[in-house]
Design goal:
- With about 270 residues, the protein is of the alpha/beta class.
- The protein is built from ten helices and twelve strands.
- It has helices at about 30-40, 65-70, 85-95, 105-110, 110-120, 170-180, 200-210, 225-230, 245, 250-260; strands at about 5-15, 15-20, 25-30, 45-50, 75-80, 100, 125-135, 155, 165-170, 185-190, 215-220, 240.
- It has an eight-stranded parallel β-barrel, surrounded by seven helices.
- A hairpin with a 2-residue loop joins strand 2 (about 15-20) and strand 3.
- The protein starts with a strand and ends in an 8-residue tail after the last helix.
């Protein structure tokens, strides 16, 4: 059985790791290079680095910070934010990234997924999707996966205060992304982000059922049980978290030990 992955997320703004609620009201969480080294030593399976304002600020990702972060880790590193072409992908891979995550750029130009997959291989291309429940579905609990199978989610771009609705259905977009060559999907629940109330399990289940590639759960992790639920009830292949790690509520080892005790296969080495 494949091991499930635990992935700390570094949301970087102005060279510092931050964490907010619903992508807003950011709180400083530390230096990305120091945190990356600490998570590598703590046994994280992978690491994600997002320059969260690169797209909304219409600028390139901070390559120097990526280089310094990559130099500190010996686990797979995914980098995203401000990636607009396969040349941008190439620069990030040269800087030390193992995978490239695209979000806004992929919605604006889906060809970037296919270009990247053809040039570097699907295993290098991650489609990150920021999804929010449609207004008519918002009253349903994000955690009630069995009770809200009919819920629908819209895709948003330009993370944060400048978030823009695209009119795309999140499930259909995930499926299309895989058809274009994405080798992995990160599904970010905008409703659950930073709330620590748990992943949107209905969203995870819907995306996991729609695609044949690994799905990473993002947004809402606040407890060890939430991590288990995202993997087992949400059918995710990996769980991504920020707040609970950055502010010392749980360690990567805490999560892995809990999961192992509850029958979830993880790497404990």
């Amino acid at each position: 059985m494949l091991k499930r992955r635990i992935i700390p997320c570094l949301d970087v703004k102005n060279g510092r790791v931050v964490k907010g609620v619903a992508f807003l009201n950011h709180r400083d969480a530390g230096d990305p290079v120091e945190l990356a080294a600490a998570y590598d030593a703590a046994g994280a399976d992978e690491l994600v680095f997002y320059d969260i304002t690169a797209s909304s600020d219409d600028r390139a990702i901070m390559i120097d910070v990526v280089e310094r972060t990559a130099a500190q880790v010996f686990i797979p590193l995914t980098v995203g934010g401000g990636i607009r072409s396969s040349e941008d992908m190439y620069r990030m891979l040269r800087a030390g990234a193992d995978k490239i995550s695209v979000n806004t750029a992929a919605v604006l130009n889906p060809q970037i997924i296919e270009d990247g997959a053809k040039r570097f291989g699907s295993q290098c291309i991650v489609l990150s999707i920021d999804a929010r429940r449609r207004q008519e579905d918002a009253a349903r609990s994000p955690q009630a996966s069995a009770l809200a199978p009919e819920a629908r989610w819209d895709v948003f771009t330009h993370t944060g205060a400048n978030a823009r609705a695209t009119g795309l259905d999140a499930i259909a977009w995930a499926r299309r992304g895989v058809e274009l060559g994405a080798g992995e999907i990160v599904i970010n629940s905008m409703d659950a982000d930073g709330t620590k109330a748990g992943f949107d399990l209905a969203l995870l289940r819907a995306v996991s059922a729609a695609v044949s590639v690994p799905v990473i759960a993002s947004g809402g992790a606040g407890s060890l049980e939430h991590m288990r639920a995202g993997l087992i009830e949400g059918h995710a292949d990996a769980v991504l978290a920020a707040s609970i790690f950055h502010f010392g509520e749980y360690s990567v080892r805490d999560v892995k030990q809990y999961l192992a005790e509850h029958g979830v296969p993880v790497r404990l080495g």
